[in-house]
Amino acid sequence: MGWWACKYCTLHNDASSALCAACGSQNPATLASNQSSFLPKLPKVSVTGALNAIDSALTSVGLIPSAPSHSPPSRSPTKWYRSIVDRLLPPCPVSPTTPAQPFSGFPPHSNYPQPTVSPAYPQPKPNPSPKLHPHGLGRGMSGSSRSPSAPNILASPSTSMSNGEHSSPVNSDSERTSLRLYSSSSIHLEKQDVQDASNTFMRITQFCKSNKIPFIDDSFPQCVKSIGDLSQNEGTLRRRIDAKDLIWLRPQDMFTKDGRRYAWTVFRDPKSSDIEQGSLGNCWFLSSLAVIAERPDILEQIVLTKVYNPFGVYQIRLCVDGRWQVVVVDDFFPCNARTRGLAFAVGRRNQLWVPLIEKAFAKITGSYAKLLAGRTIEGLAVLTGAPCSQLDLENATTPDSQQILWASLLSMREARFIMGCSCGAGKRYVNDAAYKAVGLQPRHAYSLLDVTEYEGHRLVRLRNPWGTFVWNKEWSDSWSGWTAQARAVLLPDGAEAGTFWMPFTRFLQHFDTVDVAKVRSAFGWRELRVDCTLQPSWGRDHIIGIRVHVEHSTEAAFTVYQAGSRQRTESDLMVLVHRVGPSVYTVSELVARYTFAYRHFTF
Question: Residues annotated as region Disordered (predicted)?
Answer without folding.
Answer: 92-177
